[in-house]
Amino acid sequence: MERPAWAPRSIDISVPSVSRIYDYYLGGSHNFEVDREAARKAMGFLPGLPKIMQANRAFMRRAVRYAVGEGITQFLDIGSGIPTFGNVHEVAQAASPGAHVVYVDHDPVAVAHSQAVLDGDEFTDVVAADLRKPMEILASPQVERLIDLNRPVALLLVAILHFVEDADDPYSAVAELRDALAPGSLLILTHASYEGIPLPAERAEGTVGVYKDIRNPLIMRSREEIARFFEGYDMVEPGLVSMPQWRPDTAPEEEDPWAFSGLAGVGRTA
To answer: I need a labelling partner for 159 at 20 to 30 A (CA). Which of 140, 196, 229, 261 fits?
Structure first.
């Protein structure tokens, strides 16, 4: 197997990675055959996966513009993945030049790419760290340099919490991050769920099995379980909804039915 120039030496390119599979769904080029194979298997059960990822990205861009409109100019994006067109820093800095963005990911490929893409951008940086260790993220030199925790921050947890099992207590991690943020901060979140998928749950379970096989379990949570991540936040209208229904730019009825899979919401700390 050829190792592309962009792949860090330290990574095992025979093991699929969630962020590279996501890159493949979005039509990116930073993935290996092993990632494409896992993605194709998952799409065998849920052919609409690319549409779901596109809806995720579109929601993220609207939520970032909303945050800037609310006067927030610093963004902490955890589980940021491989940078593709229309990323947080591009959207935020187009709306507010000089907005500060810190990306966080534990995938070395995602981190290496982010470093390459962000080279020379003094307002943006990347941290190699894990959502399950919030204090390591908050104490990182990158966060200390770019994020003022005494002012409101937009915390992005987009398509990441469904890869954290209950045994790893994602609720505590999210609460720890919330408690570190200033009043008026926003939590921008999307999460996989059987809700909204235009297929019986039994079919969708096949995709869950694919992720389990690559040792990156995909945890489908219910609306109530997802709402719990917003404890301590006031929900921004329209609340916890499917992605195309959150402050849409275009009529949701024009969206692909797959785009309605899973839930999205934005909360504000009091």
So the answer is: 140
Q: Residues 6 or more apart from 202 whose CB is under 8 A from it?
A: none
Q: Which two tokens stand for residue 183?
A: 């009043």
Q: What are phi and psi of 3, to 5 degrees?
A: -95, 115
- Cβ distance 221 to 37 under 8 Å? no
The enclosing H or E element of 36 equals helix 33-45
Distance CA(224)–CA(171), nearest Å, equals 13
CA torsion through residues 111, 114, 120, 126, sign:
negative
Predicted confidence band at 52 (pLDDT cuts at 50, 70, 90)?
Answer: very high
Average pLDDT of the residues in 233-261 = 96
Strand partners, 104: 78, 127
Percentage above 90 pLDDT, the chain: 88
- The string of pLDDT tens digits covering residues 77-113 is 999 999 888 899 999 999 999 999 999 999 988 998 8
Tokens matching residue 106: 């534990």
Q: What is the pLDDT of residue 93?
A: 97
DSSP one-letter string for 87-150? -HHHHHHHHSTT-EEEEEES-HHHHHHHHHHHTT-TTEEEEE--TT-HHHHHTSHHHHHH--TT
